[in-house]
Automatic annotation (TrEMBL):
The gene is BRX1. This is Ribosome biogenesis protein brx1. SMART domains: Brix. Residues 1-64 are annotated as: Disordered. Keywords: Nucleus, Ribosome biogenesis. It comes from Knufia obscura. Its main location: nucleus.
Amino acid sequence: MASIYKRATKAQLEPEASDESDMSDSSSSSSGTVRGDEDLAEDEDLKPITPFSSSPPPSNQQAEAAELRKLKQIPTELRNRILMLTSRGVSFRHRHLLTDLSSFLPHSYRDTKLDTKSSNNYNSALNSLADLHNCNYVFFLEARKNAQDLYLWLAKAPNGPTLKFHVGNVHTMAELGFGGNVLKGGRGLTVFDKSFDEQLCVGGDENKALIREMLRGVFCVPSKGVRGLKPFIDRVVGIYGLDGKIWIRVYEIREGSKDSTEDKLAGMDELATGIKLVEVGPRLVLTPIVILEGSFGGPVIFENKMYVSPNMVRREARMKKQGRYAQRTFDKTDRTRKIKDLGLNTGAERKRSAVDNRRLFG
């Protein structure tokens, strides 16, 4: 009897519990209440889990997206570092030029002279040195003909491109002796004059943009990540174009007052700010020769057909001097022949005429 009573009471309690649950669900939906975290967790546990999912978990995707955002925020200039070196056989002026340029560029690394006999080894030697010192730009000065000719190889390692220039009209800071003075480790502004686009003939605007980008990568000092960098902008690197060549000048930004004697002598008006440019040095002129696609090699993108090598200039000077000597020798031979024909030779006795005093008066 007891077991029958238990089964009957259990059957009565089950429909009542189901009715109460239905009423609670309807009341919760009608009142707009939100389910708790425990209910959501239980629902998530009840969901089937796929053991082999093709997509990575959300945490990995978020980490990769954060890394990509960080890389996009870092400017390209922060990773620029320049390897500066010369070849064997440079003169003292070329060595002082590289010293002056490296002192202006705190993001440069100056290496010893490259000891190689052939230019065919530049590709492997210079790229390996750039990789060793964590540099992505190579500024290489090559001397030829017993330091008579100086060439600049400007390359971006390890994939290129490469620019080759002939360097002329070199004047160092010690040679010029200008009054300008800049702070070591400071930064500067790189200004491309409008004559750079008008006077420079390198076969197209894309080549001009390439040369501008390579020079900007060398002379623009990064704002962060450079050892010994000082937060001052006290110089201007002016890059100009004239006669198909690139002229580079360096100036100091000097601040003065309008009441100073120098500014009054210069005739500054009342609206002037008192800021002026004073040249510091060095000076150099670059003549574009060739642009290569790779780093110290590869296909030729541009070749300057108007470029005349210094060997041809020296040959023309020798031919001109040789022509003057040949003309002088011809004139001397012609004069000797005329004197002999006229009988005016000083070594022979002149023939006396019929009215000679010695013949008439004995």
